[in-house]
């Protein structure tokens, strides 16, 4: 905790999937919409969970340098092929494309748009997500989110939790790392950001992976613990 | 000219210095404010012109790969040392820093903020400038400009007119190059963008370098010729 220290925070950088947007409901909705006619018994949420389970492993070849950087649309598309196989479903190219774009049509958690607008009155704001620019722009436009810049994976052509993703964001914002607050609902993300010298804020998203299946509390030391973004905005305005 | 073709433009990318902000008036103002006490006869506009004259050469070592990418604050700082010497002026470190930051405090041409807000209702919008992210953010905040993303030099760690600067922006926006409209008041910038397949719009800034010293008309073929951003917005709404 920052305790009685003066508040030097100048910029807020955000994880997006889980922290700002509810990927599970959105992907479930589009999977069921696109596949229900031919597969009426398909459980969209199970499909979404299986797809997301391939998310972290899919980035590993880029992180280790075994593979040149490719964006999340490409990784989501490759993972999708495996999940479709796993579920015994075959689709045409058009449906496959529409499924990948489900990740561009996610809705923010309810408090997010207004809370971000309130925070932006006092802080520079940027996503530091593993999502690429076009994906961040689509989600921001859909959810009335306004950024000062889009940092993160495509900016540095690497994936969190690699240190360069956080450090490139700090450099781009032009202030000391400790003045940049990483905001996320995943302790692993916050631990990596803290190791790079950033300040950290944990947002509870206890239902990220379904009811009761998400981080309700941080599992690592952080500077701020918040129940949601309104709570964080309140703490930062003290 | 695009003539009777359908309008596929989805995103607008902007040159900033000269096209959106009046660098000469802003730098002149800050130079005179910061140096007038010790140098009451200094012509701030001549100083600004001498500084800007070193702008293109200063980027050349990065473009050729002889030097790793450094941001415009670093290049402006190096050029400033030479201009101070040229004018026989010596300053302390604090004043030197304040002078470099003059480039963060530039004002937009009068029509720019409202015209950009109007254009943003229909198009994705990003600067593709040789300015780095922190500089773009400072100018945007100062002038009530809202971007979807900040692309350009720092995103790709190179300087215009190198093709990768334009091409990286196109890739980040996720649409075909011809659907991206490069907007600039410099024919050299537009020629380089067109060579990369982007569409192009020339904005007249006849007074960029002082009265009557700027491009009133494009010197290369472009898709749109506009007197200012309101004129461009009108043409794009047809």
Radius of gyration of chain A: 18 Å
Largest sheet, strands/sense/barrel of chain A:
6 strands, parallel
Largest interface: A-B, 19 and 19 residues
User: What order do the SSEs of chain A take from the amino end to the carboxyl end, as H and E?
Assistant: EHHHHHHEHEHHEHEEH
Q: What percent of residues of chain A are in strands?
A: 5-15%
Give the N-to-C terminal Cα separation of chain A: 14 Å
Number of strands of chain A: 6
Low-confidence stretches of chain A: none
**For this entry, what is the oligomeric state of its chains?**
homodimer
Structural class of chain A: alpha/beta
**Mean pLDDT figure of chain A:** 96
Shape summary of chain A: globular
Helix content of chain A: 40-55%
Total number of helical segments of chain A?
11
Question: Can you list the strand order of the major beta sheet of chain A?
Answer: 3-2-1-4-5-6
Could you characterize the architecture of this molecule?
- 2 copies of one chain form a homodimer.
- A 6-stranded parallel β-sheet of chain A has the order 3-2-1-4-5-6, sandwiched between helices.
- In chain A, helix 7 links the parallel strand 2 and strand 3.
- Chain A has 11 helices and 6 strands.
- Helix content of chain A is 45%, strand content 11%.
- Chain A starts with 10 loop residues before the first strand and ends with a helix.
- Chain A is α/β, with parallel strands linked by helices and 238 residues long.
- The interface between A and B is medium-sized, with 19 and 19 residues.
């Amino acid at each position: 905790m920052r305790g009685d220290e003066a508040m030097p925070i100048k910029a807020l950088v955000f994880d997006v999937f889980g922290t700002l947007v509810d990927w599970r409901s959105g992907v479930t909705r589009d999977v069921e919409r696109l596949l229900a006619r031919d597969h009426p018994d398909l459980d969209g949420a199970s499909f979404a969970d299986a797809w997301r389970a391939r998310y972290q492993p899919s980035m590993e070849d880029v992180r280790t340098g075994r593979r040149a950087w490719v964006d999340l649309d490409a990784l989501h598309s490759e993972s999708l092929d495996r999940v479709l196989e796993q579920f015994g479903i075959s689709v045409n190219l058009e449906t496959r494309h529409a499924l990948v774009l489900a990740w561009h049509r996610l809705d923010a958690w309810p408090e997010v748009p207004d809370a971000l607008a309130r925070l932006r009155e006092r802080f520079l704001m940027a996503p530091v997500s593993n999502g690429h620019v076009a994906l961040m722009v689509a989600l921001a436009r859909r959810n009335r989110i306004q950024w000062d810049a889009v940092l993160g994976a495509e900016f540095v052509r690497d994936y969190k939790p690699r240190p360069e993703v956080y450090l490139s964001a700090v450099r781009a914002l032009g202030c000391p790392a400790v003045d940049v607050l990483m905001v996320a609902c995943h302790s692993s993300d916050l631990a990596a950001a803290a190791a790079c010298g950033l300040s950290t804020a944990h947002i509870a998203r206890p239902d990220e992976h379904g009811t009761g299946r998400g981080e309700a509390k941080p599992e690592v030391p952080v500077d701020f613990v918040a129940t949601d973004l309104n709570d964080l905005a309140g703490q930062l305005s003290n």
